[in-house]
Amino acid sequence: MKRSVFFVSESTGITAETLGHSLLAQFEGVDFETGYQPYINTASRALELAERFGQLTAEEGVRPIVFATMVDREVGDILRGSSCYYVEVLDAFMGGLSEELGVAPTRKVGQSHGLRNLEMYDKRIDTINFAMANDDGMRLDNFAEADVILMGVSRCGKTPTCLYLAMHYGLRAANYPLTPDDFEKDEIPLQLVPFRHKIFGLTIDPLRLHKVRETRRPGSEYASLARCQTELRQATRMFSRLAIPVLDTTSQSIEELAARLVKML
After folding, report:
1. How confident is the chain (265 residues) per 10-residue block, as mean pLDDT?
2. What is the pLDDT of residue 141?
C-alpha cells in the first residue's frame, strides 16, 4: 500500500514531522511518501496546498494524510476542509493542558523552536562546534573538556552520533577512530587513558560495515569484508580488556543510540 503524507506548519514543521514519523512507524507494510510544507502561514498558501491535496486524491484514489501544527484557525480550517485526512497535532493536547494549568495558550506561531533563551542557544552552538573540532581524534589534547568520547572503527557511526548528542542534548562529544596502528600496539593513545571513564565503544555488524565502506571506497581493501571482520574483532577484544561499555549501531537509529548513551551517562 502507498500513501502520501504531508507535514504542514505555519513555522518550521519540526513538531509535526517528529510526531508524525513516530505514529507512522507503527504501521508496517505501508509505503509512506512524505512531503514537507513549512511556513504555510497565509490563506492563499493554504488554498494552494488544499488544491494540491485535491489533485493527489484524484490521482491516487485515496486522500493524503496531513500532520499539521496550525495556530491560525483560518489557515488551519482551509486545510481541514480540503481533501485530506487532517491531524492537528497541537489540538490533541492543548485543551487538557490549558484546563490543568488554568492558563489559556498564547497560540503564537513558532513558539516550539523560536530563539528564546540566548544562553542555551550559545551553549548549543558551542557543543556543535566542539563535536566538529574533535571529530576523528583531530585534537588529542582536548579530551579533558569532553562529556563523552566515542570510540570505534571507521564508519561505525561515531560522527553523526556525536553531532546528535551535541545538538539535542547539549553534550560535548568527541570521538576517536581505531586504526590498524592502534590494533598493532593493542593500546589506546596515552592521551585517552586518563579519560577512560568517559569512553563508550561502538560496534557494528561486519556485513553492514562492509556495505557502508563499499559506498565510500568501492572495491578497496579498506572496504573488504575480511578487513571489516578483522577490525571489529580486534576492537571488541580491546573494549573487553579495557572494560569499555559497548553499543551496537547495526540496527539502532542515531536517536535511539544517543538516548541510550545519555541514560548510561
Report:
1. 94 89 93 94 96 97 95 91 94 86 77 62 87 88 93 96 93 95 92 94 97 95 97 96 96 92 93
2. 84
Q: Measured between alpha carbons, how far is 154 from 148 in angstroms, rounded to an integer?
A: 18
Domains parsed from the chain with CATH numbers: 2-101 (3.40.50), 118-264 (3.40.50)
Backbone φ and ψ for 2, nearest 5 degrees, come out as -120, 135
pTM to 2 decimals?
0.71
